[in-house]
Amino acid sequence: MTEMPSGEYDPDAVEPRWQRRWVDEETYAYPDDPVDPNTVFSIDTPPPTVSGSLHMGHLYGFTLQDFVARFERMNGGETFFPFGYDDNGIASERLTENELDIRHQEFERREFQAKCREVCADYEEQFTENVQSLGISVDWDHTYQTIEPRVQRVSQLSFVDLYDQGREYREKAPAIWCPECETAISQVETEDDEQGSHFNDIAFTVAGSEGGDGGDAEEFVISTTRPELLPACVAVFVHPDDDENQHLVGESAEVPLFGHEVPIVADERVDTDTGSGIVMCCTFGDQNDIEWYQVHDLDLRVAIDESGHMTEVAEGYEGMHSSEAGEAIVEDLDEAGALLDRRDITHTVNVHERCGTSVEFLVTEQWYVEMLDKTEEYLEVGREMEWSPEKMFTRYEHWVEGLQWDWLISRQRSSGIPFPVWYCDDCGETVVAEKADLPVDPLSDDPPVEVCPECGHDEFEPEDDVLDTWATSSLTPLINAGWDWDEAAEEFTMAHPELYRFDLRPQGHDIISFWLFHTLVKCYEHTGEVPFEETMINGHVLDENREKMSKSVGNVVEPEAVLEEFPVDATRYWAAGTAVGDDFPFKEKDLRAGEKLIRKLWNASKLVESLAPEPFPTEPEDGLRELDRWLLAELDAEVERLTELLDDRAFSKARDQLRSFFWNTFCDDYLEIAKQRDDDAAAYTLRTAHSRFLKLFAPLLAHVTEELWHDMYADAADDAADAAAGTSAAEGTPLADGASESIHLTDWPEPLGVEADRDAGTAATAVVGALRKYKSENQLPLTAALDAVEVYADVRGFEDDITGVMHVDDLAVHPDGDAPVETVITGIDLDYATVGPKYGDQVGDIEAALAQGEYELDGDELHVAGVTLVDDEFAVEEERQYQGEGELLQADDVVVIVRNEA
Asked: In which residues does the motif 'HIGH' region occur (predicted)?
């Protein structure tokens, strides 16, 4: 048997040692051999973007995932817990550009991609070390990158399959465009941003409205925040119910400064509550402009290019940035007398979530996945999953119901997975790569045909766009399950079909519309089923004032600083402190509470080892005492409660309940009693309970439980395993895959089925606690004898435990609980929040009557000073009083009277 090390627990030495050992020994490896699909638990972990270092959100999110992985690994069977990196998107591109001080446009695509790989590899190596330092039980042999060839093949297979199904199309149409990143983006990549701006009231004239006598032309006002779009104006709209301006419909308007004429049209989409109620349509300022352009077959005037600069349509403003042009146009409007008013406003602007740049709407040729025709179907698919917490389904529902665009999946970047597509140089026919050839890069690989199947032309134009990163990361369940095309069987197969559908998708609530929705769409279209049994949605870590952490604000808490001061297990304790899904403030006191629990567990373990030196004492032949049976029965109930809570992902309740039971029931009650016993029953109970406590704490406090298990139980477990196999540990038989060494590979505790009078045991420990407190307050040693104690509760069967531990000479038990005490009212507390507003000046009279005892209680009503208060307006203070011989002790609901002449 290995002795526990003496002294205090040293997490600085213990935690890194176990982290290295878990990785080196592949403790959490998923087996290569076939696994029973009924026992495997598979987790589809989110691949973080490679764009920097670990932040508190990573620490929190990874730890929540690890709680599930460690619990399910012990409670079920094999657990598949992989890790991935999303390194094929704009984040990696921008990281590379910033790191090397270059722009992707300066290089051939393959050359730039090679640079991205080098930069990302360095960041991924450091990130991996950071995640391993959190003690996350990932199977590092199942790590993937979204840019690696295997994943590129899966991503391109997905494109080809959806194309074959008719779910993808290429179209020249208005698309959301980021001028800073110079690429099309999808609706999901935009977010609202409150920005300061100006409302500009601009005078338009009705074309041909000058009178014959040379009088002034008829004018009307349009209010706009985007004067730079004046050269792109193609129509003016009036609401059909706008009687005041209805006479304008059918006329033409002259656009100020630019002079071109546009039709004035009636349309119900006009917002009559904003500005003058007359609006201009520009191609394009927003979604309304796009709808008007399509419905009314308007002209196309593109005034802003891909980089956010003005085109030749803007005439004298050509080449200016759009923001600069807007200011110049306002000045010129003012000089021309067409600027009637200009006022400051704050409004919501659509920006690219990656860079914060206001988006534009440009007509470009892009690839789309058709989605708008199946939104109801996708809602039903979402309902098939279990949502933890359930309220998060509402976010998913709102996103799907608010979809306005099909999924735009093409990007004008260098970093990314190429579209496996060529176009006939003559007729434009689309030619898609063969599945067997994937992955391909059309910029360097030949098309699968010699001539165009449509027109016979022999020259092709390669597609130079790349797939949106979400088009690949949305395939993580299929990537991890080994989804591929079997050429011989002509069907899609999976290398690990037992993983799919995945048991759990953990992720943050901010990417429900990004990752979760797109994964459901992709996997559903490829397999016909929802990819997950359950999704667990975590919230965000805020600062202590409940504000979002931001480097610009200076309120960011860095994980490195936290882990330098506190043990990893303390951060795990902190991470379990909030209901899943809720945003929560970072509070250092939770880390300190975690440290205290670690110390308590360590010190209690040393005490258990000293009281019960044999690792696995057998249950004595004459059985256990009632108190022993009570503890194990209580622990059975705790195991059942805790298992249910962890199944429900209620980590906060599980943490607090387990801590309370261990600290109060085991340490303060049973362990204090067991310290004064020296018998086999106590030793057996201590070891049985303690080993089970270590397992219950293991998913939460991964390192200290592993250290204690290794020091106190692993050797004995090895001996037992070797004995069962007919060998001996002394013969040097190696451990089978190191399995018996790790607590995290042991079985989750099952109830032992111990029968006991749990109410009586709880009352008995309350009596012992009250007597111990009595001795302490009266400066008596714990071994001091007490002459006589009366207990008014049913503690029959526990008398010997009370008398033996607390040295009571004469114990009298009154099981009916009819104690000679009187409950008296000592005061009435008013709820001033309700009583004050309701009774006003009468409150003083009510207080005076209560002080004089001039009131009457009638059930839940209080009659005082001529008014009647109901039960939520007051609270009664009560106290037990005893007039007999001896001293009344308070022991929860148990009455204890001590008579001691010493």
From this structure: 48-58
What confidence tier does 740 reach under pLDDT thresholds 50, 70, 90?
low
In this structure, are residues 419 and 397 in contact, taking their beta carbons and an 8 Å threshold?
Answer: no
Cα–Cα dist 238/242, whole Å: 7
End-to-end CA separation in angstroms for the chain: 46
Closest CA to 233 of 211, 209, 265: 265
Residue 857 identity: L
Which tokens in the block code for residue 871? 């039960």
- Which pLDDT belongs to residue 551? 65
- Residue 128, classed as helix, strand or coil, is helix
State the SS3 of 754-797.
CCCCHHHHHHHHHHHHHHHHHHHHCCCCCCCCEEEEEEECCCCC
- Asked if 375 and 147 count as a contact pair (C-beta separation under 8 A), the reply is no
Binding-site positions for ATP read 551
pLDDT on residue 726 = 38
Q: Per-residue pLDDT for 716 more than 80?
A: no
Task: Give the C-alpha separation, 607 to 609, whole Å.
Answer: 5
Angle at 35 between CA 34 and CA 37, to 5 degrees: 130
CA distance 73 to 62: 16
568-575 vs 56-75: helix axis angle to the nearest 10?
90
Q: Which of 428, 426, 431 is nearest to 450 (CA)?
A: 431
What SS3 state is found at 8?
coil
Band of pLDDT at residue 729, cut at 50, 70 and 90: very low
The Cα–Cα gap between 133 and 110 comes to 34
pLDDT tens sequence across 370-390: 999 999 999 999 999 999 999
Compute the distance between CA of residue 393 and CA of residue 43 in angstroms, rounded to an integer: 19
CB 568 within 8 A of CB 525: no
φ, ψ for residue 148 (rounded to 5)? Answer: -65, 155
Instruction: At 863, give phi and psi (nearest 5°).
Output: -95, 115
| Residue 77: strand, helix, or coil | coil
Q: pLDDT-based confidence at 722, cuts 50/70/90?
A: very low
Q: Which two tokens stand for residue 743?
A: 């607590």
HEC string for 401-441:
HCCCCCEECEECCCCCCECCEEEECCCCCEEECCHHHCCCC
Do 257 and 336 touch, CB atoms closer than 8 A?
Answer: yes
DSSP secondary structure string, 163-232? HHTT-EEEEEEEEEEETTTTEE--GGGEEEEEEEEEEEEEEEEETT---TT-PPPPEEEEEES-GGGGGG
Angle made by CA atoms 28, 478, 434, in degrees to the nearest 5: 135
Please give the structure tokens belonging to residue 730: 């002394």
Distance CA 691, CA 713 (A): 8
Q: Which residues are annotated as a binding site?
A: 551
Mean pLDDT of the chain: 89
